[in-house]
Amino acid sequence: MRVVYIGGVGRSGSTLLDRMLGALPGVCALGEVADLWGVIRLADDYCACGQSYARCDFWTEVGERAFGGWAKVDLGRVLELRATVPRLRRVPALAGPRLGRRLQTLVDEYAAYNSAVYAAASALTGADVVVDSSKFPAIALCLRWAPEIDLRMVHLVRDPRGVAYSWTKSVLRPESGDGQEMPRFSPVASALGWDVHNVVAGLIGRSGSIMRVDGAADGRRDIPVRRVRYEQLVADPVGTVRDLCAFAGLVPAEQDLAYLTGEHVDLGADHRIGGNPMRFRTGRLRLRRDDAWQSALPPRHRRAVTALCGPLLLRYGYPLRTRPAGSRT
How much is the pTM? Predict the structure, then answer.
């Protein structure tokens, strides 16, 4: 079962990339599966189709196929695993060649829940590839231990100064109906998060062969990783999607990419979980590079983010000195 995991940090364009890939034949994009268990338990959030998860036919059927119904899942247990297993402190162990017996048991249990959802969605839609845009790289390190998953990761990167500015903006949750906003973080906090998540994502491509605790080799379980910059995605959407199709083992025909041009993408309704409010949009979406941060992010914040993220900025090909707003790269 092929799973493309979009890893990185929030506000990097993962919702856009997820929807671009999900419009391809043979692909089922699920959104942020890491958030599934919470929204099913609370029943207070909405699927991208506009229905609550409790009333969405797609997610109802996924629950039936995966578990015989969501009522049969110990959601409290899954949420406990989600909160304790893919943690930053566990990254060195998760990225290593072996797991201790106790951690192996927890990782297998957590990955099995996710795998059941992927398999059910794949069977329901007939998709060859499932996309999970949960972003947290530590989750990918857990999924790499599931032998039934052919995991590939897209490491999505955006200039951290753009990420920092995005996290400072007030963004309403259109599904809340009561003026509720999405979380906001300071530039320093978002810069530190950008560093940590991208360092972990960088570890994944170097993960070695996995040995089970009984000493039996499972063969090489390296996770193929393809790094994509947000700026590259919006500058050359067709070329980027073609490259990711090859990475995922897909061979789309010309007409399969008719929904996408160098300037816009045509989006239909889907059933993704979480993400920014554009997950509810359908129809034609203009693709443009969002560089508002170059003029809107205060200079002191820009300098702070640049200082904190400098080494990775250079590694990913971003300039330390920013260009004036409106300039092109």
Answer: 0.92
